[in-house]
């Protein structure tokens, strides 16, 4: 099972998810719309994984978290929490710091729905980061970065993730990484086979 987690103010409906479903099938890809509140994200993803993965026969499938940007931060967290591979695409390394300029009201890029970013949310994100730092397992992490990422400098991410299972750095692709998404899909397929 592949659990795709989208970035800040985005949606679980996207061309990336479509390509995952084309390759792996609708029943193998879960892509929820994430609330902003990290506690709500924890509850939502935990419930989905328990219902769709642990309540089925997990011996016949593998669980992989895939995320982009803030979703990659979450994919890293949940990969460590459930001890399974995580594919991180241009991950937000420390959202408790980088989202400080988003404190207050924000709008979803997709639905236009308003949501609030609070200090309490940022503190929860910091706690999630601490959990990963304290339980870091480099063998779980598969990293994809674009040198021309206009949101998160790729070199800073490489400095943060010194030890990983695999890393792919492309010259282009930008923060959205749409152009190189096939590389990500191929890596997921490889992880599912191993």
If you had to describe this structure to a student in words, what would you say it looks like?
This protein is an alpha/beta fold. The chain has one domain (2-193): 3-Layer(aba) Sandwich (Rossmann fold), CATH 3.40.50.1820. It has helices spanning 15-24, 38-54, 70-82, 95-98, 119-134, 154-160, 181-193; strands spanning 2-5, 29-30, 64-68, 86-89, 104-107, 114-117, 141-146, 166-170. Strands 2-1-3-4-7-8 form a 6-stranded parallel beta sheet, with helices on both faces. It has a two-stranded antiparallel sheet with strand order 5-6. Strand 3, helix 3 and strand 4 form a beta-alpha-beta unit. Helix 1 (15-24) runs parallel beside helix 7 (181-193) and helix 3 packs across helix 5. The radius of gyration is 16 Å and the shape is globular.
Primary descriptors:
7 helices; 41% helix; Rossmann fold; 18% strand; two-stranded antiparallel sheet; six-stranded parallel beta sheet; 194 residues; alpha/beta; globular; 8 strands
Q: What does the secondary structure layout of this molecule look like, with pairings?
A:
Blueprint: E1 2-5, H1 15-24, E2 29-30, H2 38-54, E3 64-68, H3 70-82, E4 86-89, H4 95-98, E5 104-107, E6 114-117, H5 119-134, E7 141-146, H6 154-160, E8 166-170, H7 181-193
Parallel strand pairs: 1-2, 1-3, 3-4, 4-7, 7-8
Antiparallel strand pairs: 5-6
Helix pairs in contact: 1-7, 3-5
């Amino acid at each position: 099972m592949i659990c795709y987690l989208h970035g800040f103010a985005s949606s679980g409906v996207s061309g990336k998810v479509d390509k995952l479903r084309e390759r792996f099938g609708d029943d193998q890809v879960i892509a929820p719309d994430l609330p902003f509140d990290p506690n709500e994200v924890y509850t939502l993803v935990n419930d989905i994984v328990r219902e769709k993965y642990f309540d089925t026969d997990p011996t016949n499938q593998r669980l992989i978290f895939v995320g982009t940007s803030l979703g990659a931060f979450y994919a890293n967290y949940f990969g460590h929490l459930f001890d399974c591979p995580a594919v991180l695409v241009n991950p937000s390394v420390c959202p408790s710091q980088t989202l400080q300029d988003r404190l207050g009201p924000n709008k979803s890029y997709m639905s236009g729905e308003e949501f609030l970013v609070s200090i309490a949310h940022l503190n929860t994100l910091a706690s999630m980061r601490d959990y990963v730092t304290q339980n870091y397992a480099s063998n779980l992490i598969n990293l994809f970065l674009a040198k021309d990422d206009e949101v998160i400098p790729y070199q800073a991410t490489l400095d943060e993730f010194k030890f990983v299972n695999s890393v792919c750095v492309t010259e282009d692709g930008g923060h959205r990484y749409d152009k190189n998404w096939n590389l990500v899909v191929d890596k997921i397929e490889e992880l599912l086979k191993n």
